[in-house]
Amino acid sequence: MDRRIAVGILVALFVGALALVGIEFANGAADAGALAVRDPCEPRSAFPGQGLDATLQRLVLDGLDGAACELGATREELVLSLSPRSKPDIGWDDEAIERALRAGLLGAIDDAEQRGSLNAIVAALLRQFAERAPVQWLIDGGQGIAGLFD
Amino acid sequence: MSVRSLIVAAIAVAVAVAFADSSIVVLALPELYGTFDTSIEGVAWVITSYNLMLAVAALLLVFVVHRVRANVLLAGGALVFLGGSIACAFANSIGFLIGARSVQGLGGALLLAGSLPVLAALVGSSARGVAIWTAAGTFGAGMGPALGGILTQAFDWRAIFVAQAPVAGLALLGATGAHVHATLEEGWTSGLRRTTPANAALALVSGALVGALFLGVVLVIDVFGLPPIAGAAVVSAIPVATLLARPVATALPVPLAVGAGTLLLSAGLIGLAFLPSSQLAYTVGSFALCGFGLGLSVPGLSHAVLGGDGIGRKATFTVGVRHLGLVLALAVVAPVLTGDLFEAAEVAELNATAVIVDGEIPATTKVPLALDIRDTIDRVPEGEIPDFTAVFDEHGSTTDATVRAVHDELVAAIEEAVTRGFRSSFLFCAVLAALALIPVAAFRRRLE
């Protein structure tokens, strides 16, 4: 092989290497796989959709955000801590988590009522539910709650 | 083809296999893990034991090889390698397999120590012998994982070792049939000391190759979930590029080829460190750069090491140094990777939870799906990435595009987090490749 051709191939390989790494960064390599959970104390876009299912999910997600914010954890850490089998150490006991969860849900119901997403009767029923239902029932029974309103 | 040419070919193939054996079982690690009730560390020793024994044995042989005829060394090495390969194929416990791999490593050291003088004597020229030995070794080092993956997928992990037995047997026949006078004559000479810069660069390049030949392969198989034969196809970009680099390397001045090779190897490893997703184009491109780097740098460095008199002892020394570089890099990378993957698993769990919680699917699907995912994760052995396909299928991913989208997003979140866990280790290997430039630049006149 002629030396000039070899040098040309070498230059092409280096250009290709730069292009590869450049394309990788352009496609999000810097942040790929990084922790992608958001600060629960900061407002975030509401869960999309209409109807009761979406409304209830918005309530629960806002409630989880409120509870996580109060506990100084992320929403995801809080959700994982609710599972008896996978408990990340978020520095709070079960009682504190339950208290924060109920407070978060009540705050979310208040907000939804003020926005006009819930009427007063449904909001009152949900408040009773949030204040009295066992926490594990709140989690495992999500399916049933949504089913009640289908 | 003459008998002599056949003997040369048999010995060259044995040299390639002895180098390939450093990484040949990497694609079979999941199968080994499943066959033997063992730990990740136990499986890792199947790789380390071969390389460690080969490095130690080769470095010790440097002091005694001149007392033994090269033909005897080659025949003895082929015989021990043959025995080790058969023992590996019939291993019934991880301890036995590690022991048999150590025997293979000892055989590999003897075989590689004796092979170069015999090849040189057979082809009638040290330069041609070095060219054949270097080409076989470079290609063998690159093809290890792909060869192992093909054999594992087509047959079984044991096939890797069954296939090596006839190769060693033919080398044994070649060594006994080659009626040539080949010796490893000289002692520790100034000529050997002059090879130190090139050997240092080879050790660093070998350490860097841990990134491509070990970490890259583990990433493709264990994280991207490719079956061994598909993984072998992806990894084959390395030996293919190594072959393509050969004419380029011979047309360039050695210092330029070696310097460019180390930089391309480093660039390929940086490419692997910053994979934005599991799309194989990025991985194949990065592997190809590593292969070009290997093909450009190793032959030039090997020629610099093996030039002049006393090729037998120099070959033995460089084999030891190369494998020592590999073992030391493995020793650094293994704990770094373990720690990083532990953190990556926590990130993956949180990111996956965010995907499920935010998933735009009805609560009537979301809650039972989340509970089933939790059960799936609980059932998967520690260190393995769960397969959620069946769970999502049960909840309608085959018919509901929104559920399928959540599945895809969940898998991507986990794969990306775990892939990021490899980043520091790949970058460490990239630094090793870049560091090889220092002895290359400082002693470039010795490479010419």
Report on this structure.
The complex is a heterodimer of chains A (150) and B (448). Chain A is mostly helical and 150 residues long. Chain A has 7 helices and no strands. Chain A has helices spanning 3-26, 51-71, 75-81, 94-115, 120-132, 135-140, 142-148. Chain A is elongated. The N and C termini of chain A lie far apart (74 Å). Chain B has 2 domains: 3-340 and 422-447, Growth Hormone, Chain: A; 341-421, no CATH class. Chain B is 81% helix and 0% strand. Chain B is built from 20 helices and no strands. The chains are: A mainly alpha (150), B mainly alpha (448). Chains A and B meet through helix 1, helix 2, helix 3 and helix 7 of A and helix 11, helix 12, helix 13, helix 14 and helix 15 of B.
Order of helices and strands of chain A: HHHHHHH
Helix count, DSSP H or I runs of 4 or more residues of chain B = 20
CATH class of the largest domain in chain B: Mainly Alpha
Could you tell me the number of beta strands of chain B? Answer: 0
Biggest pleated sheet of chain B: none
As a percent range, the share of helical residues of chain B equals over 70%
Helical/strand content category of chain A: mainly alpha
Global structural class of chain B: mainly alpha
Relative helix content of chain A: 55-70%
Distance between the termini of chain B: 34 Å
CATH topology of the largest domain in chain B: Growth Hormone, Chain: A
Unreliable stretches of chain B = none
Domain tally of chain A: 2
Based on CA inertia axes, which overall geometry of chain B fits? elongated
User: What's the pLDDT, averaged over the residues of chain A?
Assistant: 79
Helix and strand pattern of chain B: HHHHHHHHHHHHHHHHHHHH
What share of residues are in beta strands of chain A?
under 5%
Question: What characteristic shape of chain A results from the CA principal axes?
Answer: elongated
Query: Major sheet of chain A, described briefly?
Result: none
Query: What's the CATH H-level homologous superfamily of the largest domain in chain B?
Result: MFS general substrate transporter like domains
State Rg of chain B. Answer: 23 Å
